[in-house]
Amino acid sequence: MRRGKSSPDEQEGVPKRGRLPPLSMVRAFEAVSRLGSMRRAADDLNLSHTVISRHVRNLEAWFGTRLVDAGPRGIRLTAEGRVFAETVGAAFDLIAKSTAELRPAVNRTVLRIWCVPGFATRWLTPRFNQLQLALPGIDFVMRATDLEPDFTRYEADIDIRYSEEPRGNVRWILLERPRMFPVTSPEWISRNAPIRTLDDLVRQPLIHEESRDQWRQWFRKAGFEHEVTLNGPRLWSANLTVDAAVAGQGIALATRLIAADDLRAGRLVELLETDVRLGGYYLVGPRERWNEVTSARFRTWLQQSIAETTEGHAPNEGGNPSR
After folding, report:
1. What is the pLDDT of residues 16-36, one digit of tens each?
2. Residue ranges of region Disordered (predicted)?
3. How many domains in the chain?
4. For 214-249, how does the pLDDT look when each residue is reduced to its tens digit (9 = 90+)?
5. CA nearest 123: which of 308, 313, 320, 323?
6. Which range of residues forms the domain containing residue 41?
């Protein structure tokens, strides 16, 4: 009986590759181990929480052992999970490094931008026509997220975040450290007692983001010296809190960058007169790609556009270029 040709793995001198788990399961587990949360992993991979959870469970079934345990403070890796996470993370880093080396070092025509949701929705998206006129021929891919990208894996070229001064192997520019102030709708004002003091404000239905920490910090910096007990819904992002305030649901914190159109149109009204600044909008990028032409042109456009819509200042730049 005539035999067929042997497969490459069966040929002399070629080592046979061991059985590997499905890549979709491995990617899900790697994201969970790196980000420390099923939700963040789902956001990172643009999948649902259910799909991520199922991939991790299937990977555990494939190995026949638990890799992740759920606790009161979120997930934690088992001993076996930590070993596999270290190996998988190193493998993905090697793939990312090889990808970066193979990609031609030319001016790219695609710019991937990650951006905090409020700024993305209320400031950047309405100006996309202006951006495309300023940078013709560039395809923009924007993701509205509170997560920070892994620049080494080319998840993004630019990250616009609201935070304190960025750290790590990145370059950054402070775009604006805006004043943050309470806002609500004229409708809400018409059916509630006047807000004249911080004591009046603290008793109202305050609209929060993911946690109540931002309002606590705001009251402290505004000079409110009493213990703060806060109520009101938590709506995850600044974009949702401002929408709720416009709808007359209560009082939210906002900056002029994300609420300017609503203030100008009379949909929102600023309450009290305060000068509280909690953080800044930063443009962050990978150090090794900071001076690429497309990224540099976007930075210039963004700085100029923000200066035109705010009180303006000379942005600070960080991240030692020689390091």
Report:
1. 667 889 999 999 999 999 988
2. 1-20
3. 3
4. 999 999 999 998 887 888 899 988 889 999 999 999
5. 308
6. 20-102
Place of tokens 């994201």: 31
Q: Is the domain of 139 the same as that of 191? A: no
Compute the distance between CA of residue 118 and CA of residue 217 in angstroms, rounded to an integer: 19
Degrees, nearest 5: CA angle 153-159-164: 120
Whether residue 172 sits in one domain with residue 196: no
Pair (164, 284) in one structural domain? yes
Q: What is the SS3 string spanning the chain?
A: CCCCCCCHHHCCCCCCCCCCCCHHHHHHHHHHHHHCCHHHHHHHHCCCHHHHHHHHHHHHHHHCCCCEEEECCEEEECHHHHHHHHHHHHHHHHHHHHHHHHCCCCCCCEEEEEECHHHHHHHHHHHHHHHHHHCCCCEEEEEECCCCCCHHHCCCCEEEEEECCCCCCEEEEEEECCCEEEEECHHHHHCCCCCCCHHHHHCCCECECCCCHHHHHHHHHCCCCCCCCCCCCECCCHHHHHHHHHCCCCEEEEEHHHHHHHHHHCCCEECCCCCECCCEEEEEEEHHHCCCHHHHHHHHHHHHHHHHHCCCCCCCEECCCCC
Is the pTM higher than 0.70? The answer reads: no
Q: 77 Cβ partners below 8 Å, 6+ apart?
A: 33, 67, 68, 69, 85
**Do 223 and 189 reside in the same domain of the chain?**
yes
Among 15-19, 58-62, 69-73, 205-209, which stretch is predicted with the lowest mean pLDDT?
15-19
Burial of 314 (0-12, 13-18, 19+ CB in 10 A): exposed
Residue 2 domain flag: no
Q: How far apart are CA 299 and CA 86, in angstroms?
A: 35
